[in-house]
Structure formats: C-alpha cells, structure tokens
# Entry
Amino acid sequence: MLFFHWYTGGLQLIDEIIASGYFFSINTAMIKSKNGQKIINRIPKEFILTETDGPFISHNKRLVKSLDINLIIKYLNNHLKTEQMEKQILNNYRRLIRKIN
# Structure
C-alpha cells in the first residue's frame, strides 16, 4: 500500500509518513470532523488523494460518489485558497501510479 486510507492517527506521525513517500486519502467524513480537518491541515497538497469507497459515509450510487469528490475538492480549494486542487490531485494520482508500476 502506498497511501493511508482515512488516516486518523496522530499529527506528529504525518511528517514521518510523508518522508517515507506515502500519500493520504481524504473523504467527506474527514472534512466534516475537527480531527479530520487538523489532519488535512498537516498534509502537504502534494500528498493528498481523494476517496469515496467508504460505504459508512454514503451509499454506493455513482452520483453520490461524484458529489463526495466535488465536496472534498471544494473544501480543499477553499481551505488551501487555490483553484487547482483537482489538477493537483490528478498529478498526485499519476505519481502514485508511477510508483506502483
């Protein structure tokens, strides 16, 4: 595994995880919780991915998953004061795929 899915661990470990080359996936539950927001604040944008596979968050309809991604992108754009997170995340996914290959 090259990424941490729905990371809920300590903030102090994030720098070590990043130094090891891992990414973090962000979901809608994280953007809605105080702890999740603290974690997101600590992760450099170059290590952020999005994810929607949590059936605990929403049901499995494709439209809902698309809306979840849009909510996450909107949150990240507002939080990071950028309009480029969609492009950044695409680049991050590409880096992840290169690591896998």
